[in-house]
């Protein structure tokens, strides 16, 4: 988690007046998976280059032993970050060797909503809300999980169609000046409007 860098006070707008609560937004670092060889043999094909986008189950490379050809498949959706130095056609791969790292395309985070007035604004699980703003670009989020009590609400979310702006933002180690703001609109009953 980019602690301290993304915990910016955000704004909530009520359709009648501004609400005096805060939304603290934290984005989690993108998870990655290491691909580890389950077979030994000679590398006969490299199907995806470093930087390529792959879906879960896509063939990354093929390995031939004395009897079979094995396909190493992606374990997640994302970008191939790097290959091990020994990954090249004709090289020998051993069981347990690290093949590559795949950086996930999924961006997740948490919203912490606090209220000094004790007001409660419930967001629906699986609800889609607008909007998380980064440098003027809006991103919809989907609520995945929630922990709610009287004084605080904690929501875990995923970003729908994050795009390259959020990827670059998470990859940038110096982002203290970035403008990450969460704005939710509420109806007159205090219910957040979802898509």
Structure report:
Mean pLDDT is 75; it is low at 1-21 and 186-190. The protein has a seven-stranded mixed sheet with strand order 1-15-12-13-14-11-2. The longest helix is centred in the last third of the chain and has 9 residues, at 163-171. 5% of the residues lie in helices and 46% in strands. It has two domains: 11-30 and 106-186, Beta Barrel (Elongation Factor Tu (Ef-tu), domain 3), CATH 2.40.30; 32-104, RNA polymerase II/Efflux pump adaptor protein, barrel-sandwich hybrid domain (OB fold (Dihydrolipoamide Acetyltransferase, E2P)). The chain contains one helix and 15 strands, in the order ββββββββββββββαβ. A hairpin with a 4-residue loop joins strand 6 and strand 7 (69-73). The chain has 195 residues and is mainly beta.
Strand order of the largest sheet: 1-15-12-13-14-11-2
Give the SSE string: EEEEEEEEEEEEEEHE
Secondary-structure arrangement, i.e. CATH architecture of the largest domain:
Beta Barrel
Write down the overall geometry.
elongated
Share in helix: under 10%
Q: What is the CA–CA distance across the termini?
A: 27 Å
Average per-residue pLDDT, rounded, comes to 75
| CATH fold label of the largest domain | Elongation Factor Tu (Ef-tu), domain 3
- By secondary-structure content and strand pairing, the structural class works out as mainly beta
Tell me the strand percentage band.
Answer: over 45%
Major sheet: 7 strands, mixed
Query: What count of domains describes the coordinates?
Result: 2
Any idea what the radius of gyration is?
22 Å
**Beta strand count:** 15
Uncertain parts:
1-21, 186-190
CATH C-level of the largest domain: Mainly Beta
Q: How many alpha or pi helices?
A: 1
């Amino acid at each position: 988690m980019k602690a301290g860098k993304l915990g910016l006070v955000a704004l909530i707008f009520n359709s009648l007046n501004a609400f005096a609560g805060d939304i603290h937004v934290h984005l989690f670092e993108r998870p990655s998976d290491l691909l580890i060889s389950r077979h030994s043999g000679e590398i006969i094909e490299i199907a995806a280059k470093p930087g390529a986008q792959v879906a879960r189950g896509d063939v990354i490379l093929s390995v031939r032993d004395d009897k079979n050809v094995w396909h190493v498949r992606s374990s997640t959706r994302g970008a191939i970050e790097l290959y091990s130095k020994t990954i090249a056609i004709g090289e020998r791969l051993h069981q347990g060797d690290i093949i590559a790292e795949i950086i996930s395309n999924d961006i997740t985070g948490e919203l912490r909503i606090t209220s000094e007035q004790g007001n409660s604004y419930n967001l629906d699980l699986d609800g889609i809300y607008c909007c998380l703003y980064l440098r003027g670009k809006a991103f919809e989020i989907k609520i995945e999980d929630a922990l709610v009590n009287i004084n605080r609400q904690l929501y875990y979310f995923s970003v729908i169609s994050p795009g390259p702006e959020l990827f670059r933002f998470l990859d940038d180690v110096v982002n203290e000046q970035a403008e990450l703001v969460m704005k939710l609109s509420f109806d007159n009953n205090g219910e957040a409007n979802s898509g």
